[in-house]
Amino acid sequence: MALPTPELHTSRLHLRPFTAVDADHLFALHTSAEVMRYWDSPRWTDRARADRFVAVCERLAEEGSGARVAIDQVSDGAFVGWCAVTGWDPDFRSASLGYCLDQSAWGYGYATEAAHALLRWAFDTLDLNRVQAEADTRNLASARVLEKLGFVREGTLREDCIVDGDVSDSWVFGLLRREWRPSDAPLPAP
Fold first, then answer.
1. Model confidence over 46-85: pLDDT tens digits?
2. What is the distance between the alpha carbons of residues 85 and 93, in angstroms, rounded to a whole number?
3. Are 15 and 6 in contact (CB under 8 A)?
4. What are the angstrom distances between the C-alpha of 131 and each of 31, 94, 95, 113, 146?
5. CB atoms < 10 A from the CB of 8, how many?
6. pLDDT digits (tens, 9 = 90+) for 144-174
7. Which residues does 42 contact at the CB level (< 8 Å), separation at least 6?
8. How far is 70 from 81, CA to CA, in rounded Å?
């Protein structure tokens, strides 16, 4: 069953389906050492990875297994990153949340704002009961984003990632429907 990728708007952001023209922005994002510092895979070195990323976004929509959206600033249309709800399991009513933002967009609350909009869509459209997210235990900023959204830290995956020889742990976060704050009320300050 297909699941059209949503187009969502917040006061500062436009979340939209990816297109082929986004590949250059994606490649720049995923080649940044700072952006990828706490990621579960190495920085991209092959430009074709960006094209495959866009193709996977389209496949998610075709298969109905989730949605990955590009995030643009409303003020100038600048690409600032992406946000995704993937791994949707309609039987368990669960999915996973992920996001990746350009370093220039850090500290402005964009990750929280984009994820909140996508979660609102996902809870309503996919009838979710649970959303899971993971963050490297060294990435305190990402942990704060998840906590602002209402996620609860549920545990630690010890030494679950080895990237370029660097071993790291990840926190597992969960958000249940009964804990979700879907209102348009402002989120806590960044």
1. 999 999 999 999 998 898 889 999 999 999 999 999 999 9
2. 12
3. yes
4. 28, 6, 5, 17, 11
5. 19
6. 999 999 999 999 999 988 888 888 899 999 9
7. 36, 163, 164
8. 6
Look at the block and give the residue holding tokens 């071993």: 167
N- to C-terminal Cα separation, the chain = 37
Residue 172, CA distances (Å) to 36, 114, 137, 152, 154 in order: 19, 20, 9, 8, 6
